[in-house]
## 1
Amino acid sequence: MNEFVLVEYGDRKNGGGFIPYVDERWPAPPPAFVSAAENLVRGNVPPPPEKTVYDGHHHPMWSLRLVDVEGEPHWCFAVQGCGGAFGRSATCQFLFVSADFPPHLLWSRASACVRPDGLLAHPDVVGIAHMPRPPVSAHAVLVGLRGLFSGDSRIVLPGSAVDVAALIGALLAVLPLVVVARHVWSTYLVRRPVRDPRSIVTGRWPQELPGANPALQHWMERAPDRAYPPVRHPQADEVVDWLVGLAVNGNELPPSYVTQPDVEALSELVAVQQLDFDRTDVPRLLDAGDDRLTFGRGRALLAEWVADSPVQAITRLVRGLDEAHEHAVFDTVLDVHQRAAPGANLALFPPAASRVQDGT
């Protein structure tokens, strides 16, 4: 069982300065976690500038990184803010959990614990429940993945802070753990990081907020250096497209993919296991209940096959499929039917449905 530890810095009650803060309703966090939080505050998770008029609901300042807590790796989800519920002295909150907890689930579940005022609720109050990921655009996911596949030291994600928060959650779900740990993930930054050599994945400072750092803005507009070798796999572009489809559909990498050492190895595995089939293989893969037909490139090939062979597709629905494939085939049949020429009945609505009783 994973234990979540919340550490807070700030003084929301008295405005007495930026100091460790412990809610009297909860036990004090262990000293090792307080020390880890202090290192972050002194380093690359500082309080936002006081002149910032902060709105934690519309402009969430969140980040995720792997940190050391007395020699043990932990994921840390951080929330920063100033003004409003965060107080005049600002507040930084740090939610720690052991590194064996999936980082995309931490991002999703911790962000769901953020209250409407922007503060992170104590995990003992709300729990850390599973929440569906918000939708993301294929273009935005593509921007992030291309930067990762290029080995860029700084990847700037498009959209508002809310958009970037959703996008980070989607990217974390389709990357190996090692790749996630090699980066710091942030909706936007207070200042340029100098004490953490890891690559940055971040959004831009919201235009609506004062307090932007001109030097930071200039740094983010510069062309990034290369921190890692770019992916050289001949099917890298197809792999990226497959990962985009995975992320956009709210899916995540299978366990064996998550343990790959880098995106080059991930590309090789995806190419062999996910891209090495075509439309003629669809009937066989349907009969085998192959999950590759339910998302990404496999779903596109399924659509092509249904468009060419609607009777065969409906026959398989009548015979029975597992739930995931039944939904995929049924939805695709309806899509094909809606796009058909006027008067066509590709979905074989009655009385045409009698044609599939004997599989013909």
## 2
Amino acid sequence: MTDVESSISQHQQRHADRRDHTAMDTAQLQSSVPTHIDINDRTARAALAARLGVTEEQLRKTVRLVGTRVRTIEAHHRA
């Protein structure tokens, strides 16, 4: 293998490694952010209510109206 071929091969490997890390970071981020709330989980309920600036009872009512998907709940409270 020539020096040029070796250099190209090393560059391609670094680029592939970077892609792998980016995909892994995205997957880890998505798995750490819940898409739905377990309304019976007191800690999760309190955290989401605090983040939205609503009471836990208001959060419970919203879940009854729109479901448990966090993005939908957030949109409901922004409206």
## 3
Amino acid sequence: MDDNSAMDKMKGKAKEAVGKLTGDKRKETEGKTDQAKGGAKGAMGDAKDRAQGMKDSLDD
């Protein structure tokens, strides 16, 4: 997982927690969205790494 995806997840958890504490459903939803965005970025990064590994093994 890269730094950007981890940052999005942490930011999302914080927003969600603040939203829950204050009763702000919009902030809570933004937090969940940021967490999902971070997860998607992480998955894309993992897929790119796997694809690069496959390419490298075929090049050898």
